[in-house]
Design a protein that fits this description.
The complex is a heterodimer of chains A (224) and B (225). Chain A is an all-alpha fold and 224 residues long. Chain A has one domain. Chain A is 83% helix and 0% strand. In chain A, helix 2 runs parallel beside helix 6, helix 3 runs antiparallel to helix 6 and helix 9 packs antiparallel against helix 10. Chain A is globular. Chain A starts with a helix and ends with a helix. With 225 residues, chain B is mainly α. Chain B has one domain. About 4% of the residues of chain B have low confidence. The chains are: A mainly alpha (224), B mainly alpha (225). The interface between A and B is medium-sized, with 31 and 28 residues.
């Protein structure tokens, strides 16, 4: 499968770039931390309240962070004039998207997992017992954010005011992801935690729909 | 010019007639009273706006695959006109909801879907204004439009699962639902009239976009010389 081996090479390139600079991960972690702390000032969370509002706040901060973090994904290629070279290097342009969205999902997941203990302490919720399930929710949610996010990063790179355009394009579209991830996370943080399979299925469905769309229309997104 | 004026006047008369029918011919609804009359405009506008966004989706797909400028013009026209109808829906909805539900707004499936739909197409139009080059603008906005339209059913079902307190569908719902015949006539006429309005606005906006494109072409030509 040339597609996957190409994508794997490109994924290696994305990871190496991030490993050398470590810009995205550090800034995103700090950004989420700031947002979560500021949110907690807007109300004084008791245990019940943080169970009710916590998941929503958490996902809202992930979404905001993602809309900033996904910004350089294609912008970097454009600024360095490497987009055409990248296109020439693979036969199927979907490999580029596959690599970039895997890298983005990974980065998002990593920042989210790093944030979880801090969130648990600040908002007084118990996550240890449900940690594996929580990671599953985080993974499906992050994938749902990263797929359209990577696609729109290619779109917003072409526009003026791109820093504002990406959140504007992305956030309304992510309404279903926000709802489903918040509900699924909320189910896990309740007093009697339960895995909300229906919402997980919904998230998986969302991922499949947009992955298919990206597969169909990805090549047009890379036109210059 | 004369032809479109005649069409516009004809349509105005048709809308006036349907409004008369809605208010005086159709009976007053038992439980909601007079406020139910706003439904004729509300529901018809909602259906018309969905039709407009459907046309926009079709135009976006057509542009991506054929690269005809005309498809781009149709796309932007349909998005703008659809947005106008969405605004009508979002204004008439709360006017009805306040006396009947006692609140202006609630986060139910159809309300939220309409709101998110409006936001998505505002983003579509904003994106267009942020890309200078015509071909790039057409292509990237079309791609965004396709993604946005795919999101519509997902938004709907996610919020539907989340909660719903909207009145259940009465027109195509299960047994016991259905409309009084005079109400049905008024509804269908209003829907027809608004679809006519949609076509009229769409063709006017389409002509404007075509003129804009030719002005842009002429300006470029002048710059080259």
């Amino acid at each position: 499968m040339a597609l996957f081996s190409n994508a794997a090479v490109l994924l290696g390139k994305e990871l190496r770039t991030e490993y050398r600079s470590r810009e995205l991960l550090t800034t995103t972690v700090v950004f989420i931390l700031v947002v979560v702390v500021l949110f907690s000032f807007t109300f004084d969370p008791s245990a019940g309240e943080s169970r009710r509002f916590g998941p929503g706040l958490l996902w809202l901060s992930f979404l905001f962070a993602a809309s900033l973090m996904l910004q350089p994904c294609f912008l970097r290629e454009q600024n360095n004039d490497t987009l055409s070279a990248l296109r020439l290097s693979v036969r199927d342009p979907f490999a580029i998207f596959l690599a970039k969205l895997s890298a983005n999902t990974l980065f998002l997941l990593l920042t989210e997992v790093l944030m979880l203990p801090i969130f648990a302490v600040l908002y007084n919720v118990h996550i240890l017992a449900v940690f594996p399930q929580l990671v599953l929710v985080l993974f499906l949610g992050s994938l749902g954010v990263a797929i359209p996010g990577t696609a729109f990063s290619a779109i917003s790179a072409q526009a003026r005011m791109r820093e504002l355009m990406l959140p504007l394009l992305l956030l309304p579209l992510l309404t279903p992801v926000l709802l489903a991830s918040t509900e699924a996370t909320g189910g896990l943080l309740e007093e009697h935690p339960g895995l909300r399979v229906d919402w997980l299925g919904f998230l998986a469905g969302f991922d499949v729909v947009f992955l298919t769309a990206l597969w169909l229309f990805g090549e047009y997104l890379l036109e210059e | 010019m004369l032809k479109s004026t005649v069409k516009a006047i004809g349509l105005f008369v048709l809308i006036a007639i349907t409004a008369y029918l809605a208010f005086y011919y159709a009976p007053i609804e038992k439980s909601m009273g007079v406020i139910q009359k706003i439904f004729y405009l509300h529901v018809s506008s909602a259906l018309t706006s969905f039709l407009a966004f459907g046309i926009c989706f079709y135009a976006n797909l057509r542009y991506v695959f054929t690269r005809q400028q005309k498809a781009d013009w149709l796309g932007v026209s349909a998005a703008e006109v659809g947005l106008a109808f969405i605004v009508v829906v979002l204004i008439t909805g709360p006017i009805w909801a306040k006396p009947v539900w006692g609140i202006w707004w609630t986060w139910d499936a159809r309300l939220t879907l309409t709101f998110v739909l409006g936001l998505l197409y505002i983003s579509y139009l904003l994106l267009r204004s942020m890309i200078e080059e015509p071909e790039k603008r057409a292509l990237f906005s079309a791609l965004f439009g396709i993604f946005a339209f795919l999101d519509v059913p997902l938004v709907y079902f996610s919020i539907r699962w989340w909660r719903t307190q909207h009145p259940q569908p009465v027109i195509l719902g299960g047994p016991g639902s259905g409309l009084e015949p005079r109400m049905r006539v008024s509804y269908l006429l209003m829907w027809g009239a608004l679809t006519g309005l949609l076509i009229l606005l769409l063709s006017a906006r389409y002509r404007l976009e075509a003129l804009r494109a030719s002005v842009e072409d002429l300006r470029r030509e002048a710059e080259v010389r």
